[in-house]
Amino acid sequence: MKDDIINSFNRIALLEDKWDHNQQYEKLLIREISNQDRTALDIGCGTGEFAQKLSKKVQGVYGIDLSPVMIEEAIKRHNEDNIQYNIQDFDEISEDVKYDYIVSIATFHHLNLERALPKIVRLLKENGKLIVLDLYEREGIVDRILDCIAIPANYFLRVLKNGKSVDDEEKAAWEEHSHLDEYMTFKELSNVYKEYLSKEIKLKRLLFWRYMLVYEKK
Predict the structure, then answer these.
(1) CATH number of the domain enclosing 93
(2) For residues 173 and 62, what is the distance between their CA atoms, to the nearest angstrom?
(3) Residue 48 covered by a domain
(4) Does residue 155 lie within any of the structural domains?
(5) Which residue from 131, 165, 173, 176 has the fewest beta carbons nearer than 10 Å?
């Protein structure tokens, strides 16, 4: 399964940079980060687009990804002197170094949260912050209402930002990847985050099939 995920992301890494739902919410994540001499870990950094934005806010960014091609593209496209990229599995990352911020975009659904969250708490410094943007499985009336708004809004924004045409390779790469994705519902996510982090987490639904989590270690 992990090899399939790596191969899929190797393919996606070669696609052209375009607007997507993750970019739509990057400003929300950046607002949670103060301009200070701090360090950040980016789990599943991909081609480094958000890591580069992080590098403008903190002293140092450590970006990790399972995909060798993602890391190659990150170094080519979004490199800065204060970013270090590495091909690495989060399960294998050392706990010797602690971070002020741990961020992750569209990666947490590939992690075993029961195992990953306690490790993240250990990796955070005191008063450190975990910031997550990820996808979830829609269910119930609230999510159905969101879908009714998101579907036409998504079409409009995609055409506005990227144009009407969709590259065949882009379509095929994401179709292949969709078979590897497994999502939890918002309720399931709320339960697991409160169990392993804190009942004081900030967790909210977002329009385009995503949620945002903010947790501050006390």
Answers:
(1) 3.40.50.150
(2) 27
(3) yes
(4) no
(5) 165
Strands annotated E in 19-142: 39-43, 60-65, 83-87, 99-105, 124-135
Looking at the structure of the chain, the number of domains it has is 1
Q: Is 199 exposed, middle or buried (0-12, 13-18, 19+ CB in 10 A)?
A: exposed
Token readout for 52 is 């580069």
Q: In what order do the strands lie in the sheet with 60-65?
A: 83-87, 60-65, 39-43, 99-105, 124-135, 210-216, 202-206
| Residue 45 belongs to domain spanning | 2-138+176-216
Element (H, E) at 157: helix 140-162
Q: Which of 3, 2, 5 is nearest to 179 (CA)?
A: 5
Confidence category of residue 186, pLDDT binned at 50, 70, 90: very high
Q: What is the pLDDT of residues 67-100, one digit of tens each?
A: 999 999 999 999 999 999 999 999 999 999 999 9
For the stretch 120-135, pLDDT in tens is: 999 999 999 999 999 9
- CA angle (104, 35, 190) in 5-degree steps: 35
| Residues 6 or more apart whose Cβ sits within 8 Å of residue 138 | 144, 146, 147, 185, 209
Q: Is 206 left (phi over 0), alpha (psi -120 to 50) or beta?
A: beta
DSSP letter string, 8-45: HHHHHTTSPP---HHHHTHHHHHTTS-SSS-EEEEET-
